[in-house]
Every structure is written in structure tokens, then in C-alpha cells.
């Protein structure tokens, strides 16, 4: 089932609405211009995970979009309402996907539309985590320095304008793959359409975890960030790009990490098998399990 | 007022709905992913203008998005219904904006959501046409050859993922300008966020009209195309880029052309005054008036 809770100044804890009925105006700029932002987070046993990190990224996206959205407290209360409703309806499910969405609202109204959506975790997502991912490199079209000189491109914001991300995944599926890693026009590894890239090396027991540098215009991964903090405590070395495709081919293991699918091993890149490591995956999954 | 007509297999001429009520599902991929397409066209005296060109571009956008949308006949009938309803409600308005929208529909439903929206032409749009436009060059981040090698970037498709286009216009307004002309990372002139770039030369009576080449990843302008056909009949020479910023500074006149605002002179670029020509604007406006 889907639970929808709209953020509404007249309802402190959010307004639960019937998800089987239309709830958005057809003139909402979210629908007509993809003009808005979102976050997807996991809830386990009725509690949202990494909530502060997601609310903080939501605020950063809102700033990039110059969009006034409800404050963190209003989001927290609406999330609680949504999860309570979801757990009551689906008591046997231990986890759920919580989406936070905010649009620029109806054209001319100057008032954001904001809502929380709670859904079961799709079975296909869990299956990919287990089976691993066949991935294609696809060019994102931007060079890795553009984010710093062209803020209007909204590179670090998680906007509702995801048509290209969706088209890239369709392209991968049409070519026998499961997912995509974007590269920049100057040959750097960027990110997945809905995930962050990780690679690891184990050299004589010194383990290193690497991810592309944020300055290349990628989204700040909340799961990557939490995992890096946990890995550092365990003695891992950490590294931040720039990464090129050959670094992924040379690594001891490569993963895509995101808030719902969590840590998923990449098993091939452009049809070429990659090294994988059950040991490293198990070790990092144990660290991921601490924050989810 | 706003008239909304949903395309619906159960209603041959479309289903008129109450535009003051929510009509979209909050889980529609148009709203949650900007995953869909649109067209904006002008109607004059109840008749849509350049309808075949818009329906043809809509079909091209659908192909790029691999999205199955209603056929041209269904769109034509829904547009007629919408315009009839609009004219009945607003008999004194001679023109209207007709938007055609189609999304990938509700997640998992595998059925596009498609509707027609009819509105008055905003007064601000007409004012810009008269006053002329102060324009900023802003980098679009892509090089001018990427569209040909990366179809997943959807460069020639008119998608609902317009957050960057909207952010660019906001950036211009925050910097004292009205609109934007995007440039490629390799320094070519591309297009406006919602318009096509035109420039003209008049050299000893031989008039030339130029626009950036389509291969640079810009949208095929329906108004530019119709104006070029009309100008050719009048003995104009036609040219298709590549154009660089200096070509605009050197031209006898520069315009942005689009379906609703029509031909609007550019009066300054990055704060530097441009040559304008009341004669050329009048002559081309007379040609535009033939197809609108």
C-alpha cells in the first residue's frame, strides 16, 4: 500500500490523504516543469534512518532551487504520521521506503506543495542487492568542473527533473545491464543515476575505500557518507577521487550504494567482469547495517 | 481561467475536469521524476496554430523518451474540446495558451497520463514582446556534439524535466535580465530555456536570417521553422549555425522566438546593448502573423 501525508500549516502532524485518489493539481510546477526536490530514505521498524542527513540535503536542494519548503520539524512530524499509518496497515513489514517531495506549487500561487509518501521496499530492489549489478558507463555530458562555475545547472541538488536519469537506466536495461555509472566529458567517474560509486582496495591488510570527489558535480551521498564514517572507525583509509574508469577495473571490489538498495556489488562494467569480494562486501554490509 | 481536458480512451473527445480540484495522482512519474513531455502552442480565435508541427514534435519527444502516448487524433479532439470550453467561458479573449502534457503515468501502471490545459496568454509575456529582452549568456554545460553520441541525455526532446531551464531564468532575473541564451561548453550559441535564437543581417538589401544548427542538441523550434519557410518565400537567405556569441554582437538584430511570446527582440546581451531594427522586426512580425 501507499500512504500519503501532505504537509499543511493547518495540520501540525501533516494531513493524511487517500492515496487512491488524485491529490495534486494538474498545474503544479512539479508536474509541469519537474520544478522541485525529493529525498528517498529507508525506515526500519517504523523509524526513519539517517533522517538528519536527508533533511539536511533536502535543505541544500531547496537552497539551490531557491525554493521555500516546510521546516525540518514539519517534515519529521509528517514522516512520523506516515510511518505510523503504514505500520498499522502493514504490521508484518519491517522496512519501508519514505519519500519526501516538495514542488514549487501551483503556477502563480507562490506556495510549495510538500508531501511524504511511504511504500513497501520493492522486491526487485532487494533482488539486485543480492544478485549484484551489471553496469554500463554512460556519458553525462558535463565536464567535472562545471558545477563550480554554473550553479544554475543545479548539479548538487536532488531535483524532480530526473528524466535523464530514468532514460539512462532504460538505456542500460535495453543493453542487457541493470544500472549505470555516469562519466564526465573529461573522462571522470561521477555517480549512478540514483546511487553513489564506491571502490575498495585491500593491500596487505590495509583497506582503502574510495568515492568520486563531490566537486565533480555529483550528489552528496548520505549512505556513502555514513559508511565512510563507520569504516574510518574500523581503520579503513578513505579516498575521494578523481576516479577514472580504469580505477574501477583495477579495484578489489566496486559497489553502488544508496539509501534503499543499500550496498550492491557491481559484477560487470560494460560487459567486462569485475573483481568482487564476498569478504569486503560482508564487512561493509555489517557497517551499513549499523546505520540502517 | 484554466480549462483541463484529460485524454481518456473512454471519452472520445477527452474528459473535461474541474481545474480547481486535484486531478493528478501524487505517485504520477510526471510529478515524482519529471518523466514526461509537453508542448505549448498558441490558439487564435479558437484555432490552434502550427498544430501539426507541435504534434509531430510531441511524437518525436515521445520516441526519445520511449513513451507511448495517445495518437494525434486524440490530441486534436481534446484540444478542440478544451478550446470550445475556453471560448465559452472567456468569449472576449482572442488568444489562448494550449499546453499538451503527457507523463509516464502512475508508477507501475504502465499507462501514460495525458492532458490538455488551456489558459489566457499571460500579460507579462505580451509585455516582453513589446519591450524587448535583456539577455544573459549562460553555459548549458554540454558540448555541442554530445547529443549525437549520448541519446540518453534526451537533448532534442521537450521533457517535463525543466528545473534547469527555470533555474537559469531565475538566475537571469536575479541579475537584472529577462531571459537567457545558453551556450555550449565549446563556446557555441544554443537556445533559450523556452525559445529559439534568431539573428539577421541586411547587407545591401540582401537579408539573411540565421539560427543555431539543430545538431548542437537544441530543440527544433516550430516557430523558427515556420518563419524560415515564410522568409525564404520573401527572398531571405537562410543560415544554420554554428553561431558564437560574437555573431550575435555583430548582427543587425537578434530575437528569441517561441510559440506564445512569438518574436521578441533582444535589446542587450550580458549588459551590452545590441543593435535592433524596428524595420526588420516589423517585417518578420508580419511573416509570423501569417502562421499565428
TrEMBL record, chains A, B:
- A Pfam family matched in the record: Aminotran_4
A cellular component annotation (GO) from this entry: cytosol
Tell me if Transcription is a UniProt keyword of this record: no
Q: What keywords does the record list, in alphabetical order?
A: Lyase
- Look up the domain of life of the source: Bacteria
Enzyme Commission number(s): 4.1.3.38
UniProt entry tagged with the keyword Lyase: yes
Name its GO BP terms in alphabetical order: carboxylic acid biosynthetic process
Single GO term (MF): 4-amino-4-deoxychorismate lyase activity
Name the family the entry cites.
Belongs to the class-IV pyridoxal-phosphate-dependent aminotransferase family.
This chain belongs to the protein called Aminodeoxychorismate lyase
Instruction: Give the species this sequence originates from.
Output: Arthrobacter echini
